[in-house]
Amino acid sequence: MSPITAVLAVCLVFPSVAADCLNGWTRFDNSCYRVYRNGTEWPLAVFDCEKKSGYLAQFETASKIQNAHALMRELNGKVDDKIWIGASDVRHENVWVWENSRQNVTIFDWGGKEPNQGSSSTQQDCVMMYGKYDFKWADDICTSHFQYLCERPLSASL
After folding, report:
1. Are 20 and 140 spatial neighbours (Cβ–Cβ below 8 Å)?
2. What is the radius of gyration, based on Cα positions, of the chain?
3. Cα 133 from Cα 128, distance rounded (Å)
4. Are β-strands 126-130 and 82-88 bridged in parallel, bridged antiparallel, or unpaired?
5. What single-letter DSSP state applies at residue 156?
6. What residues contact residue 54 under an 8 Å CB cut-off, 6+ apart?
7. pLDDT tens for each residue of 105-128
8. What pairs with residue 140 in β-bridges?
9. What is each CA distance from 45 to 2, 66, 117, 131, in whole angstroms?
10. Containing domain of residue 54, as a range?
11. Do the beta carbons of residue 126 and residue 118 sit within 8 Å?
């Protein structure tokens, strides 16, 4: 292969790889994901993901839910990890909605005995993936400080 052909081959191959996800983000399906380990409240996590041209992760298919579990294993998720995702029933109790799309959640991945209100009189309206449940979902008080999972479409990562 001539040097010119080699340079052209590199130029044609690498842009598609580099354009997948920004540094620090991981690709699954047609999205890029990143866990932010600094604990924050659910509404602030929503805002922070939006500042990064994304949104709190939403999983509309069983495949995306399984990929989220694989992602957490890949990122060395721990049993005590609690990671906000983009679902809540803030507007109407027991009507779970994805914050970004405002669509009803149609596929659930609740852990054992979830959702629940626990012993607290405070509403548990926001959803997180809980390491204790192998990253299945649990509801919790929206002002709790947890890690959070942002999602960005591939097109936003270019």
Report:
1. no
2. 18
3. 11
4. antiparallel
5. G
6. 32, 150, 151, 152, 156
7. 999 999 999 998 766 677 899 999
8. 126
9. 51, 22, 21, 18
10. 3-157
11. no
CATH number at residue 36: 3.10.100.10
Per DSSP (E only), the strands in 82-145 are 82-88, 97-98, 126-130, 136-140
**Average pLDDT for the chain:** 86
* Closest alpha carbon to 124 in 114, 109, 139, 138: 139
Sequence-distant (≥ 6) Cβ neighbours of residue 22 within 8 angstroms: 32, 152, 157
Show Cβ contacts of residue 113 under 8 Å, excluding neighbours closer than 6 positions: none
The reply to whether the predicted model has a pTM over 0.70 is yes
Strands 97-98, 82-88: pairing is antiparallel
Number of independent structural domains in the chain? 1
pLDDT in tens, 42-69: 999 999 999 999 999 999 999 999 999 9
Strands 146-153 and 82-88: parallel
For the record, the structure tokens of 94 come out as 């027991």
